[in-house]
Specification:
14 strands; four-stranded antiparallel beta sheet; 19% helix; 258 residues; single chain; Immunoglobulin-like; 5 helices; C8orf32 fold; alpha+beta
Length: 258
């Protein structure tokens, strides 16, 4: 599947500023970047490797008080859409060292608070079947309500309120899967099936010795998602982190099949 990605944004700052960006499609297995362009006005750009070696993060030093950014890419997604129900979960002592951090609670994913609930509700199934059951429970019990949460909403509030947006679904997915002693991490993606179109957040779970994408909102599947970045939770995969207060003047994300 080939998708065209176009992102445009304009932000204003009170003074010259440095922003930290995560919005380029990553060069990882399952997707090939056929073309891409990132323009950040007159900013000076430098790059570092993303968390867990996935993608790159961009530091943009903006000399003035306004950042005009345009990103476009053509991505060929070759990742298959396979079921997860028959995949095995690794015993704790067999989980690779680089994967172990995604077993632990994090700022927005207090997985330790869900151990009892997950044990009682999903204790009868194991491995990929348990992950699939958690995914289905979240999709069936939460309502997707734009504006129902903000950047400070944590997973306990989402669980109690039974509503949220993609970041909240992904936080709950990661928290419950970690509570089941299966590694899970947050992933920023693009997909033409996101409604309304925007940066999208999903989970990725460690099953069968590899990472597998899972979208608890039900909007996307692994074969239509272009991965941007991974991390412990939304704090790690934010598309922009600004040193100075940032005023959004314009922002659009448009993803379509080609």
């Amino acid at each position: 599947m080939r998708i065209q990605i176009d992102v445009a944004m304009t932000y204003r700052f009170p003074n010259p500023n440095t922003v930290f960006l995560a919005l380029e499609a990553a060069k990882v297995d399952g997707q090939t970047i056929e073309y891409e362009s990132l323009l950040v006005g007159d900013a000076t750009v430098s790059r570092i490797t993303g968390d867990s070696g996935v993608g790159e993060r961009v530091f943009a030093q903006v000399p003035g008080t306004e950042m005009i950014l345009n990103y476009s890419a053509l991505v060929n997604i070759t990742r298959p859409h396979n079921g997860i129900e028959d995949l095995d979960a690794a015993p704790l002592h067999m989980i690779p060292g680089e994967v172990v951090p995604y077993l632990r609670p994090s700022r927005y994913c207090q997985s330790d608070k869900f151990v009892s609930f997950v044990g009682k509700r999903f204790g009868g199934v194991q491995g990929g079947a348990k992950v699939a059951a958690i995914r289905d429970w979240i999709e069936n019990n939460l309502s997707y309500v734009p504006g129902s949460s903000d950047a400070d909403t944590n997973v306990l509030e989402t669980f109690a309120g039974r509503q949220g947006v993609c970041r909240d679904y992904a936080h709950l997915m990661c928290s419950m899967v970690r509570a089941a002693q299966i590694p899970a991490r947050m992933v920023a993606v693009y997909s033409p099936n996101v409604v309304p179109q925007d940066f999208h957040a999903v989970a990725e779970v460690w099953l069968g010795g590899q990472w597998t994408l899972v979208d608890a909102t039900g909007m996307c599947t692994p074969d239509d998602m272009a991965v941007i970045a991974v991390g412990r939770d939304a704090y790690d995969i934010a598309f922009m982190d600004s040193q100075a207060p940032a005023q959004m003047l314009q922002q659009s994300v448009f993803v379509q099949l080609t």
